[in-house]
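Appendix B.2, paired examples.
Example (i):
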Amino acid sequence: MTIEHLIAFNLALFAALASPGPALLVSIKTTLTTGRNAGMAIGCGLGLMAALWTLTALLGLEVVFELFPWAYVIVKTAGAIYLIYIACSMWKHARDQAESIEQPARHAFRQGIMINLLNPKSVLFAAAVLVVIFPSDMTTGQSVFVMLNHLFVEIVFYCGMALGMSTKAVSAAYLRAKVYIDRVSAGVLGLLGMKLLISR
């Protein structure tokens, strides 16, 4: 493994983080509605689970899913149901009055872990990227280093986003357009959940 491999991986990771998906949408929603600390906490939860998926991909977990398709189906179905549940809750409360009030960060951290834990496509995506970028003869130490690098990049990304989006101007703009933003986000999350549910 060389520094070029690591740079290529980090570029691919940043592109994946910035693309619209459940993790990004929920982290933005959490930051805007419950404050900077909760936004950073959910980012840490998302990052920790994503990094662990990367480590399991490096250690060959995707082979387990290939050998036991039912395990993949169970995790995928649970993840889809969880996303649909979040979407329904977001839609239901879209018209509720909201204020930017701090909430216990531990709840957001657990939610971040659950979102990426129940998304088995994370490990398949990680495996695909890792196979293309990294050599096949990596040691266990190098695999752990890649996992820690992944965790660092995710935490920097989500914490930076939480800091930027928790400003008064951004929060005020969200509160003014809350019903529309929540309904669009709920629709996207619901569609992602349905796609995950029916996809093979």
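Example (ii):
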Amino acid sequence: MTVLSALREDLHNARIHDPAARGNLENVLVYSGLHAIWSFRLTHRMWGKPALRGPARVLTQLTRFLTGIEIHPGATIGRRFFIDHGMGVVIGETTEIGDDVMVYHGVTLGGRSLHQGKRHPTIGNRVTIGAGAKVLGPLQVGDDSAIGANAVVTHHVPADSVATGIPAIVGPRTAKQRERGVDPTTYVDPAMYI
């Protein structure tokens, strides 16, 4: 995929995921999530060259300062990744993210240990992660799953599931939750409050 076609795909993806998106020029100028993703693509390429790892980290920190979003250049991110609002998003070094994933502000894809190696989550395809959610450790979130707002996930989430609460309780997605545009903050198990 060429750089221009990737930019076009990102802009189209922003219009699909955000009903407030008015046009490509506005999105290019004001969408911090797009800016962070574009910067990540550059730093990720730099990370692959040992001599450029230091400058990649410096550019990552500059991007963090400008956007409020920190994506480690060692992370792996698929196509059509979208960050809505963005402020406070942190994505760790060994995180792997599939295609068509959407995260909201305040999301952390982080680690739970200080050992070298895989210590961050692997996120499948078509996953939505609600505002403030924390997905921690070398766990897997299966395809077509959703993480509710402010959930703290520390165990694997099977495909086509919903994880809500602290610690997150995992259950199958309902037909309503599979509908496009359903707010992940509504993914609440009423039994939790009885």
